[in-house]
Structure formats: structure tokens, C-alpha cells
Design a protein that fits this description.
By secondary structure, the protein is α+β, with helices and mostly antiparallel strands. It has 2 domains: 102 residues, Multidrug-efflux Transporter Regulator, Chain: A, Domain 2 (Orthogonal Bundle), CATH 1.10.1660.10; 54 residues, no CATH class. 48% of the residues lie in helices and 7% in strands. The chain is built from 7 helices and 4 strands. A hairpin with a 4-residue loop joins strand 1 and strand 2. The longest helix is centred in the last third of the chain and has 29 residues.
Length: 174
């Protein structure tokens, strides 16, 4: 089964003249034979070409990039294609990024989700370590001995007996 040119044009938001032109230059060619049917993969490729054209990439660059990806055996339908209007990168599901205009040169790729997870784990470990340290300090204080936190109570200048009772004792090293 396949899709006629009219169906392919409708499903991909391309014109019939674009399909004819792209077939003529060998960019996307329907199944051979008299039926001229487009496969689902062809529909995906047609949509990709239309999107890349809309993003400002020239037809010559698109043809070169897609030609390389198809020649190298890449499953174009499984790739994410990224462009800035000049370069074209093909992103694989395994995280690799290929520069499709430089014959597949591997581009630098940094998985931000993995970096974020690593930093979050480090922060959690740091927080746990800090909390254990603070708990250790609290546990080392003698039982029933409260530390004054207000200026008046800490200085002992308060007039009431409660403030004097909570006066800080000097800490002696153990």
C-alpha cells in the first residue's frame, strides 16, 4: 500500500509541483513502477523537507544532508533533525548528533538531563552530609541545656529569671 501524489501532498502540506520537482532531482522518489505511490517513510521525509525549507535552509543543503543520511543507512524517520538555517544536525535516539552537512562528523553533545541529574544527586548528598553534621552538633550538647538566642538573654542583661537561667555555658573541649 502507498499514497498517491495527491494524498501525499495533502498529508504533508506540500504542493504537487513540489513533489514533482523533488522527484525530478532525486530528493524523494516514490515507489518505482507505474503506481507512483509514496510510503509512510516518504511522507515523513516530505514533511521534513518542507519544515527545513520553512526554517530557511536551501534546497541544495537539504538535498545534501538528507542524501548523506540516506546513503549512510540512517533511519531518517527515527532521527530528530535540527537546523539553524545553515547547518543540519541529525540527532539519534542514543544521544549522538551527526553534522549532516559534514558527512556525518560527530558533533559535541552534552546530555543536559544527565548533567542535571548528576548535579541534583550531588546537592542531595551535600544536604544529607550537612544535616548529619548539624545533627551531630546538636547531639553533642549536654541534655537539658538550652542556648539563648536573643541578644538580651545571651548577654544576661534581661531582668527576668528565665533569661538568666538560659545563659550560655562555656563549651569545653572533650
Amino acid at each position: 500500500m502507498g499514497f498517491t501524489a495527491a494524498q501525499a501532498a495533502r498529508l504533508t502540506n506540500c504542493t504537487l509541483s513540489q513533489l514533482t520537482s523533488w522527484e525530478r532531482i532525486g530528493l524523494i522518489v516514490p515507489l518505482p513502477g507505474g503506481s507512483h505511490r509514496y510510503t509512510f517513510r516518504d511522507l515523513v521525509a516530505l514533511r521534513v523537507v518542507a519544515s527545513l525549507l520553512e526554517s530557511g535552509l536551501s534546497l541544495a543543503r537539504i538535498r545534501r544532508a538528507l542524501g548523506y543520511l540516506v546513503e549512510s543507512g540512517e533511519d531518517v524517520a527515527a532521527l530528530s533533525i535540527v537546523t539553524d538555517g545553515e547547518s543540519v544536525w541529525a540527532c539519534r535516539t542514543d544521544g549522538q548528533i551527526l553534522d549532516a552537512l559534514r558527512r556525518g562528523q560527530l558533533a559535541l553533545f552534552l546530555a543536559l538531563d544527565r548533567v542535571t541529574a548528576e548535579v541534583e544527586a550531588e546537592v542531595r548528598a551535600f544536604d544529607a552530609e550537612r544535616q548529619a553534621f548539624v545533627n551531630g552538633l546538636r547531639d553533642s550538647e549536654p541534655a537539658g541545656d538550652e542556648v539563648a538566642t536573643t541578644g538580651e538573654a545571651a548577654s544576661g542583661r534581661g531582668g527576668d529569671a528565665t533569661a538568666r537561667a538560659h545563659r550560655r555555658r562555656p563549651v569545653t573541649p572533650s
